Amino acid sequence: MDIIFFDNIDKLGRIVLTAVMVYMLIVITTKISGKRSTSQLNNFDWIVTVMIGSLGASTILLKDIPFVEGAASIITLYVLQFLVTKYASISPPFSDVILSEPRIVFYQGQFLYDAMRDERLTRQELESAMRADGINSFADVEAIVFESDAKLTIIPNTQNSVKDGTVSETLLPLMND
Q1: Cut 0.85: pTM above it
Q2: DSSP 3-state assignment of 154?
Q3: How far is it, in rounded angstroms, from Cα 48 to Cα 74?
Q4: pLDDT digits (tens, 9 = 90+) for 52-89
Q5: CATH of region 101-175
Q6: Using CA atoms, how far apart are residues 109 and 71, in angstroms rounded to an integer?
Q7: Most exposed residue of 1, 31, 81, 120, measured as fewest CB within 10 angstroms of its CB?
Q8: Distance between CA atoms of 71 and 65, rounded to whole angstroms?
Q9: How far, in Å, CA of 97 to CA of 90, rounded?
Q10: Which residues 6+ apart lie within 8 Å of 154 measured at CB?
Q11: CB atoms within 10 A of CB 45
């Protein structure tokens, strides 16, 4: 049976030293890459974050991966994330391909069940988001939007997003989904 609790001091020392170096690398590259890498994550950002965590762990624990190779892979992911998000910010068609669109899941007292089913949301999740915003009744809600970062945004009834029977310009694009 393999050793469970301790193998040797050299291996332990290598893991501790590599962990410190990978930690510093990720902190520095995250700082350089800006707020986007730690903000509310959309699907694309989440995938990159998971990959960076996996590469960091592999670099720390696997002796076959030298620090420089692990660092190169982590930095490459940060650069790719920067380039993709930069291009998405200037190219709406590209942005549409990689990012999810916000979607209305509740509107003027009506649950939009097709949208809720497509987004795999339950009534309980909508109620939880309302409670988090201090709203206790669906009557006090004009709309609930499921955002690109998977956050539920509650639009209170007091904002009157519907005027003269027409939907406001901010909600209109979301109603067409």
Answers
A1: no
A2: strand
A3: 10
A4: 999 999 999 998 999 999 999 999 999 998 898 889 88
A5: 3.30.240.20
A6: 52
A7: 1
A8: 10
A9: 13
A10: 129, 130, 133, 135, 141, 144
A11: 20
